[in-house]
Design a protein that fits this description.
Layout (H helix, E strand, L loop, with lengths): L7 E5 L4 E6 L11 H16 L5 E6 L10 H6 L3 H20 L4 E5 L2 E3 L1 H8 L2 E5 L3 E3 L13 H8 L2 H10 L2 E3 H7 L4 E3 L15 H14 L12 H6 L2 H20 L5 H12 L4 H17 L2 H17 L14 E5 L3 H12 L3 E5 L3 H20 L5 H9 L1 E4 L10 E4 L5 H14 L5 E4 L6 H4 L9 E6 L8 E6 L5 H13 L3 E6 L6 H17 L4 H11 L11 H8 L1 H10 L10 H5 L12 E2 L2 E2 L1 H10 L9 H22 L5 H12 L8 H8 L1 H15 L9 H7 L6
Parallel strand pairs: 2-3, 3-4, 4-6, 5-7, 6-9, 10-11, 10-13, 11-12, 13-14, 14-15, 16-17
Antiparallel strand pairs: 1-2, 7-8, 15-16, 18-19
């Protein structure tokens, strides 16, 4: 028996189990569009009515199961009635699956996110491969799970675990998902040629078929979610309202404050729905909040961030080159950045030659990587054998002889220009003639690093941000000499590493550090003028800086985090931009000769030694600054610098600036973007405020000439 659909294929096995294969046409991943949901509806009613079918196994014919609902459709939703109709029909179909007397078993490989997870939760049994990834990312798009996720998950697993997953948007991997009870089986699987005629031979589908037969024959398959007693108690009706939801609200508010309503709305939906049947709760407790949020401007802004991210990741700069089975990547420098980069590359299946000058440096770097891998094992992201395999891919080296066949090298040594130039010189002597040299410099221009190179066209920038694992952005920097091939290879490797690779033109500070410098400079000057360290950081935190990382952080705490020495080095390298970068003599005093650098914060308290030092070194007047003026002084210079970067062609589009500042500097997504917020407030308003600040505080606030054309440049940003 076969039914024919555009996005689904079906096949009835000899044992009367129907394989339902999802293969969305025209997309690399499966998504739940309205068209796909209509086909699911037809299949559900078709197999229910067909007496030959005894059970169903739903599986993807692509590499991953389902990446979620179609984001473009969500973005286009402005009609609440139309949205309500789609969601109601989906609840009806998912309810039919859940209440079906014929078992529905889902076989999951790869991504099972958002609506995909909600579909899986409606099924009777869930089998996954060991590379399954599960989660509800909806809150990151300003909405809540809308196909029953807020209702079925809390009934399946412990309430605290469910609330955490629903309100955080974080992903869970296969073994933690099994432990929590989200899935029922984990199977190690060897992927084969995945078609409707062959997919039933794969191990995880074989297990899914067995589970469907067992459920059909009523053999009594039992789940064992292993819920701890305390978590069971926290789900009891009397306890959950008094303790569990109260604690969850407190944690959500501490994390997102009042800037993101979706997580709190999700909590409301869960709490109200637990008093109802699942189907009624989906329609009466969950759907009203979804409809309210899906048409909000915040949701549209967050979806634009997502779409811009995908646009950046999916650029085609040239033919694919890298193959983990063929290529080994070189990393020069086993320090903090080099070891992190090497570890991330090995996670993607590549061999890595990690080079340094002394065995001690290599041992320290390898130990750092081992600690990171052990953290992954402890979190059950990977198992011990996989950890060992990843470590075996990394080859410590003291010799350039190991780089004779290495096609791509990332330099991450200390920020000393002569050292970087020397490393490039030695690279050109040892590496293949077409090998690419990517420097991770944060304070020198690519043209400066490549100044003495014989083949400048082989040099490109790959500016990673610390910590490499958490920071998604990597600036792919092209100098005037960088070849198209070097640029394409760097971009592709950044994509393979799971980063957001943004191509920027060579220039002092590139894009993020250049704009961020204005923010850091002003924060130091505010302290020098007498504003407390706490007031500066608190104002920035309340504005939302770094809130999307899960840890709000002001500019002075950020300087402490990245290191005063690093900050001084970066700011000093920006002197060529002009007098608007005027703080390096002040902050330079925080590095006493022969002593450890001072920090703004010391054991959770303001460091009075730094306050006194900055006041003594500052020649200007002491001031009393209102919170409103403080925020203007921190944020408006970044807007000015962003326009300068656009004018100079560091990037060409405003959305690229906003994306870079979100992922690289922690500018809050709920504000839409650095330049989008300015467009909405009015370009003339920002210019007038800068002119007022210039009159009171000096020429560093004088708006650039680009403000004259900014209204046209940002016209599309006023929605």
């Amino acid at each position: 028996m076969e039914w024919t659909y555009r996005h689904f294929k079906t096949r009835l096995l000899d044992n009367d189990i129907c394989i339902v294969g999802f293969d969305y046409q025209g997309k690399s991943v499966n998504v739940l569009t309205s068209e796909a949901l209509e086909e699911i509806k037809a299949i559900v009613y078709g197999v229910t009515a067909d007496e030959r079918v005894k059970g169903m196994v739903l599986v993807s014919l692509k590499d991953s199961f389902i990446a979620g609902a179609d984001i473009n459709e969500i973005y286009e939703m402005t009609d609440i009635d139309g949205c309500k109709k789609l969601v109601t029909e989906t609840h009806t179909v998912f309810g039919e699956i859940e209440s079906s007397k014929k078992p529905w078993v889902v076989a999951i490989d790869g991504l099972c996110l958002g609506g995909g997870l909600e579909l899986a939760l409606a099924c009777h049994w869930r089998v996954a491969t060991d590379n399954g990834v599960f989660g509800f990312p909806e809150v990151k798009l300003g909405i809540i799970p809308g196909f029953g996720g807020t209702q079925r998950l809390p009934r399946l697993i412990s309430l605290p675990d469910a609330l955490d997953l629903i309100t955080s948007g974080r992903n869970v991997y296969a073994y933690p998902a099994l432990k929590r009870g989200i899935i029922d089986d984990v199977v190690t699987n060897q992927r084969g040629e995945r078609t409707i005629d062959t997919v039933d031979r794969e191990a995880f589908v074989v297990v899914a078929i067995e589970r469907a037969l067992a459920l059909r024959s009523q053999k009594g398959l039992k789940r064992n979610p292993r819920t701890p007693l305390l978590q069971k108690i926290l789900g009891w009706p009397g306890v959950r309202d008094l303790i569990t939801f109260k604690k969850a609200r407190s944690m959500v508010t501490a994390r997102v404050k009042n800037h993101y309503p979706a997580p709190l709305k999700a909590l409301d939906a869960v709490q109200a729905g637990l008093r109802m049947s699942v189907q009624r709760a989906c329609l009466e407790a969950e759907m009203p909040y979804l409809l309210e949020l899906v048409v909000s401007r915040l949701s549209k802004d967050l979806i634009e961030v997502f779409l811009s991210t995908q646009k950046t990741k999916n650029q085609n700069l040239g033919p694919s080159f890298f193959d983990p089975a063929k290529h080994t990547i070189g990393v020069l420098g086993a320090g903090l950045m080099g070891s992190q980069i090497a570890g991330e590359i090995s996670d993607k299946g590549f061999g890595v030659h990690l080079k340094d000058l002394e065995p001690k440096f290599l041992c320290d770097g390898m130990n750092r990587i081992i600690r990171m891998k052990k953290e992954d094992v402890a979190k059950r992201i990977i198992n011990k054998p996989e950890c060992e395999h990843r470590m075996l891919r990394i080859h410590p080296s003291l010799s350039w002889d190991d780089f004779k066949s290495t096609p791509f090298v990332i330099e991450a040594i200390k920020e000393v220009l002569s050292w970087k130039q020397k490393a490039l010189e030695e690279f050109e002597e040892a590496a293949p003639t077409d090998a690419i040299f990517a420097t991770n410099t944060s304070s020198f221009m690519i043209s400066e690093v490549a100044e003495k190179a014989r083949h400048k066209e082989r040099c490109v920038g790959m500016h990673f941000f610390n910590p490499v694992r958490k920071m998604q952005l990597v600036e792919i920097v092209r100098s005037d000499s960088t070849s198209a091939q070097a640029l394409a290879h760097a971009y592709e490797l950044g994509s393979i590493m799971g980063k957001v690779p943004l191509v920027v033109r060579d220039g002092p500070g590139f894009l993020v550090n250049r704009i961020l410098s204005r923010y850091l400079v002003e924060a130091v000057l505010l302290v020098a003028e007498g504003v407390s360290i706490a007031d500066v950081d608190k104002a920035a935190e309340n504005f939302g800086m770094a809130i999307d990382s899960g840890r709000s952080m002001g500019p002075l705490a950020l300087i402490d985090y990245i290191g005063v020495e690093t900050a001084v080095h970066v700011l000093s390298s920006l002197k060529k931009l002009g007098d608007r970068i005027v703080v390096h003599p002040l902050i330079g005093g925080m590095i006493p000769q022969g002593k450890r650098p001072l920090t703004f914060w010391k054991q959770g308290k303001e460091n009075d030694e730094v306050r006194k030092l900055l006041k003594e070194q500052y020649a200007g007047p002491q001031r009393s600054v209102s919170t409103e003026t403080l925020i203007k002084r921190l944020v408006l210079p970044m807007r000015d610098e962003a326009l300068r970067c656009l004018e100079e062609g560091i990037v060409t589009e405003p959305w690229q600036v906003d994306l870079a500042m979100l992922y690289g500097a922690g500018f809050p997504a709920f504000r839409g973007g650095l330049l989008k917020e300015m467009a909405r407030e009015g370009v003339d308003h920002t210019r007038a405020d800068l002119e007022s600040l210039a009159a009171d505080h000096g020429d560093r606030f004088q708006p650039c000439d680009s403000f004259k054309e900014a209204e046209n440049v940002l016209s599309a940003y006023k929605m």
